[in-house]
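Give me structure tokens for this 349-residue protein.
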Amino acid sequence: MTSACLHPHIDDFLAAAGWARSRVDLLAADASFRRYYRVACDDRTAVLMDAPPDKENTKPFLAVDCYLNSVGLNAPDIYTANLDLGLVLVEDFGDDRLGPYLAQHPQQDAVLYSLAVQVLTQLQSHVPPADMPYQSVCGGGSVPLGDYDADVLLREARLMTEWFLPAAGISPGEKAEHDFDKAWLESVSPILEETRKAPVMVLRDYHADNLMVLKSASTPFGLIDFQDALCGHPAYDVASLLQDIRRDVSPELEKAMLDQFISTAPARLNITSHAAFLQSYHILGAQRNTKIIGIFTRLCKRDGKPRYLEYLPKLWQLLEGSLMHPALAPVQSWFQQHVPHTHRKRISA
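Here you go.
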């Protein structure tokens, strides 16, 4: 076992699961408090998630994992879990994340993005459950699937004003913050009505770095990082996939994938207007990128992770593109008034 493994109970946890004397190597630490390790024992491997229970709740991961597999998608098999310790041992999907894979195989862009859109249409053909069951060695239960409602959308957008604006030296004042809320509520109101009529499970981080390319022709992708799923609008995960801050999606590919999604969307979504869906796509893309600008600033300023600042120029590029849509005129006007272009793309670590 490497020195990177800091959890004091990893040895006992793995031994109880039948993985004694395994080699454990750090894979990654994500934007949360979770850390991931690859566990190797003889000729088998697994992935160990270490989610500190005082900071992370592993029940949603177990529950969403079970649900995704139940509708024919491929979330990792869960080998064992201990919620009290925050340790979960799951199937190893390998190292081929879609983003880096396409950097080596760019000729497969269209094919693999088309398959990624198919995954979304398969997921969204199902009415999302109100509650999702889970099982672990600590016992079973269920987790409610929360709503991606106005409160959540607005709370996320406010991460921009709470974290980015102070870091950029901008103090808009109380009235401007009230106007920010009003502008967003005006813009997202159509989203809320559409969601009420045809809700879907929204994975929220459905992008190339969370799609694992698998060898099986029948199952092209393994899904990861879905524990924050909510019940929301079908355009959100489409925007997450195609407005990717970590890789460039060409305008031609973006248009082709949007056309594919709209033409093949499940009948239950009742997408009858190309223009209406594109409006929702841009509204939710703008909200998402506004949120991420705030989150990535917080990761730098609060959590000491300055590497996330490198994504700010791309985030602003995507946000400014979506703000050109007429449905976002109130939000665009707010940004033009309160966030000068000279302050948008660079803040100091």
